[in-house]
Amino acid sequence: MYSQTNMTNRWQWGVKPDNPDEKDPEFSAYTKIVSSRLKSAEDGPSQAAELAKETAETWLKAAKDKKEHRMIVRRVARGTMRGIAEIGQDVPLTSRFLLKMLPGAAPELAIDAKSFTGWILEGIADVTLMTGPAVRSNIMKMMEAEFPELGPQFAEICRTAKLKQWWTK
């Protein structure tokens, strides 16, 4: 449906962005769970989104402070997308499923759906820094077709993420 670049080769060549979450054992474990469980799955993107929803609900319910909600949602989205990218599955399709499934957890946990969706977009945008402009472009095309209201917000988040990456090098 939406083409993508295989990220496995880029990571083998050492093209990995600096990511503070890599030092977080929960995040690393979650990313490994996504990639190991879904490596041979035919419908990896939809299964990844289901796993993300379950994980987000569990972590959000366990959160001690509501201030942690943004970090949790962003990490789950980023970990899901990264796990899918590592095994060469469809990253744009995974972002589509995340945007359809994850916000369903927001009302149950009394979280503003608009904020929740923005946090998902932040996690997706973070991964596009390592997947490159072709994948980011394909995600934008998918958003224009299926979530037109999110396109400008996603573009701004991507622009901000690129600036942060540039300034921190």
Helix proportion: over 70%
Beta-strand fraction estimate: under 5%
State the major sheet: none
Alpha-carbon Rg, integer: 15 Å
Order of helices and strands: HHHHHHHHH
How many E-type strands? 0
How confident is the prediction overall: mean pLDDT?
80
Written description of the protein model:
The chain is mainly α and 169 residues long. It is built from nine helices and no strands.
Task: Briefly summarize what is shown.
This protein has 169 residues and is an all-alpha fold. It is built from nine helices and no strands.
Chart the SSEs and their pairings.
Elements: H1 7-12, H2 25-38, H3 44-62, H4 69-86, H5 91-101, H6 105-108, H7 113-131, H8 133-146, H9 151-168
Helix pairs in contact: 2-4, 3-4, 3-5, 4-5, 4-7, 5-8, 7-8, 7-9
For this entry, give a set of tags.
disordered N terminus; mainly alpha; globular; 9 helices; 0% strand; 169 residues; single chain
